[in-house]
From TrEMBL:
The chain crosses the membrane at residues 6-25, 32-52, 92-112, 124-142, 148-166, 187-205, 217-235, 256-274, 286-307, 314-336, 342-360, 381-400, 420-443, 464-482, 518-539, 584-604, 619-640. It is a multi-pass membrane protein. This is NADH-quinone oxidoreductase subunit L. It comes from Spirosoma flavum. Its main location: membrane. Signal peptide: none annotated.
Length: 642
């Protein structure tokens, strides 16, 4: 199969699924709609595997396959700027293809069971397909313009899916909030693309990165470009200050949370930085800024997660925190480690969200963990898989999260000891709030209503099979990049040749001794284990239950419980002033514009009323007017010539 055709078919199948279900969602039966949507993404996954094997099979003698650019057609030509609609196939795009289509296929299967009773099932599956299409454009494009199309497209799909149950006003507000905050970040991203065009005369990755290797580290233009691009990543990947949309996005159906806000869309910012690694390596100041924002985001979100009682909100703040860890790794030029955590996070966070959906499904849409308890007896598959996901995200060996998080922390230790210490502390917080969630949900006595107890049941196979597959990946995913010379490090190495060229010291061999590495691993795992024990003592031994909403709380607890009042702060210093300014401008504009328009209308009306009196019907007056007019014209001509 020709490369261009293969690359075109991968995003084309989900687009076809969207068109069929989107046009006929009122007529296509639910079973057929679910099948079409799932087969479309599954076909893309199969083609991605074929493309992966073909690419790996083309490795040269040095053990690395060269990037392949498949041009579908010439697109934009303006002066010297030529932009092709083309796809770039290399190590990074292939990894993202497998994640998006693989995890996406499992979530589509899960959605068939989870959304089967929803009236808008066909429309929901169509939106999922559309999201996969745009996400594939984002990761396959060979230039920043195609990336931006996918970037905007997944933002649109996020809006549609978060507000899918649009009869609820709060859900609509959450969707609007996500859309607006992403647009703020996207403005920075777009300005960064304009600066790339102005600086390099191209938007193609290969052209830009080749030219960038001739620049000096610390170049002011590259600093501006990387900061603007990172503003886009802050919005899409929920970093301070553009993170508050992500927890509110839990208003959407649970499969949406798993697909968009755990495995794919929110990692777009990580993908963009890894893709642009040459530019970021050239700008150490940008990396320092990213590191500061990343650790602040990780700790802020982790502390908020300690007191949340909505099962999906806990996972949402966990996602924000884990994204902070990924950016923390990137700030230490640990691009492979950051990408490794993207992969493992896709496994265990999708698993946790889908497990939460299984719990919500069994609890008749109840999401408050204070009203759960003892569910491991009636939801055995959900419990075991959720336990595996919890161990993985907590960084406990030997599951996937331990290896990816440990690799990030090891690189950060070399780069900055303070950031490492804060990272280990954040890892302990993650372990505590995740086991708190596990213990309150699945252990102890059931705290729900009798009606809920009566309806408790394990989810259907369409929901449990994806849980089992993701649990296996969450347990074994660490094998992708074991300490030492892991497969992933070897596979991704060619992506960073440009960065090695501009800053060899950033990719030099680690100076940390093996004994120190083992100590660091033990410290990280020990802190996570200690947090687990504390959570066990509090919620199993002492059977503590989180306080109700009306309970009086201490000031620090109240601040954390109310998420540091960040939303209220934004409301006070940004939203209200802008709305007030808008009202003032509206009032001023309404008075000024209406005054001008009404004044002109009044003038025309009055003048026309007077002018119409000249039409008297008297022939003598008309002859006189004609003669006077001729005299005036001749007089004007005479004076002009003088």
């Amino acid at each position: 199969m020709r490369l261009e055709l293969l690359c075109a078919l991968i995003p084309l199948f989900p687009l076809i699924g969207f068109i069929i279900n989107g046009i006929g969602f009122r007529r296509v039966p639910k079973g057929l709609a679910g099948g079409i949507a799932t087969v479309a993404v599954l076909a893309s996954f199969v083609l991605s595997v074929i493309l992966f094997r073909s690419f790996v099979g083309n490795e040269n003698q040095a053990g690395a396959a060269e990037p392949i650019v498949a041009t579908l057609f010439d697109w934009i030509s303006v002066g010297d700027l030529h932009i092709n609609f083309s796809f770039q196939i290399d190590q990074l795009s292939l990894l993202m293809l497998l994640i998006v289509t693989g995890v996406g296929s499992l979530i589509h299967v899960y959605s068939i069971g989870y959304m089967s009773h929803d009236e808008g099932f066909g429309k929901f599956m169509a939106f999922l397909n559309l999201f996969i299409f745009f996400m594939l454009l984002l990761v396959m494009g060979s230039n920043y313009v195609i990336m931006f199309i996918g970037w905007e497209g997944v933002g649109l799909c996020s809006y549609l899916l978060i507000g899918f149950w649009n009869r609820n006003i709060s859900f609509n507000n959450a969707a609007r909030k996500a859309f607006v905050m992403n647009r703020i970040g996207d403005l920075g991203f777009l300005l960064g693309i304009f600066m790339l065009i102005n600086t390099f005369g191209s938007v193609e990755y290969l052209d830009i990165f080749k030219q960038a290797t001739s620049l000096e580290i610390g170049d002011k233009t590259i600093l501006a470009i990387t900061l603007l691009l990172f503003v886009g990543a802050m919005g899409k990947s929920a970093q301070i200050p553009l993170y508050t949309w992500l927890p509110d996005a839990m208003a959407g159906p649970t499969p949406v949370s798993a697909l968009i806000h755990a495995a794919t869309m929110v990692t777009a910012g990580i993908y963009m930085v890894v893709r642009s690694n040459v530019l970021y390596t050239l700008s150490p100041l940008t990396l320092e800024i990213i590191g500061g924002i990343a650790i602040a985001t990780a700790l802020l979100a982790a502390t908020i997660g300690l007191l949340q009682n909505d099962i999906k909100k806990v996972l949402a703040y966990s996602t924000v925190s884990q994204l902070g860890y990924m950016f923390l790794g990137l700030s230490a030029t640990a691009y492979t480690a950051g990408m490794f955590h993207v992969i493992t996070h896709a496994f265990f966070k999708a698993l946790l969200f889908l497990g939460a959906g299984s719990v919500i499904h069994a609890m008749s849409d109840e999401q408050d963990i204070r009203k759960m308890g003892g569910l491991r007896k009636v939801l055995p598959i959900t419990f075991i898989t959720f336990l595996i996901g919890t161990i993985a995200i907590s960084g406990l060996p030997p599951f996937a999260g331990f290896f990816s998080k440990d690799e990030i922390l090891a690189h950060v230790f070399e780069h900055n000891k303070l950031l490492w210490a804060l990272g280990v502390f954040g890892s302990g917080l993650t372990s505590f709030y995740m086991f708190r969630l596990l213990f309150l949900t699945f252990f102890g006595e059931f705290r729900g209503t009798e009606e809920q107890r009566h309806h408790l049941h394990e989810s259907p196979s369409t929901m449990t099979i994806p849980l089992i597959v993701l649990a296996i990946l969450s347990a074994a995913g660490g094998a992708l990049n074991l300490p030492g010379d892991g497969w992933l490090s070897h596979f991704m190495a060619p992506l960073f040749e440009g960065s090695r060229q501009v800053s060899p010291e950033a990719f030099a061999e680690s100076t940390v001794e093996s004994s120190t590495e083992y100590i660091l691993m033990a410290v990280s795992a020990g802190v996570a284990l200690l947090a687990l024990i504390i959570a066990y003592v509090m919620y199993i031994s002492r059977q503590a239950i989180p306080a109700s909403e009306s309970t009086e709380r201490s000031l620090p607890e109240q601040v954390v419980y109310n998420k540091y009042y960040v939303d209220e702060l934004y409301e006070a210093i940004i939203i209200r002033p802008i709305r007030g300014l808008g009202d003032v401008l509206y009032s001023f504009g309404e008075g000024l514009v209406d005054g001008i328009v009404n004044g002109i209308a009044w003038l025309v009306q009055k003048s026309s009323a007077q002018l119409r009196l000249l039409q008297s019907g008297s022939i003598g007056f008309y002859v006189l007017a004609m003669v006077v007019s001729i005299v005036v014209i001749f007089a004007l001509r005479f004076f002009i010539r003088l």
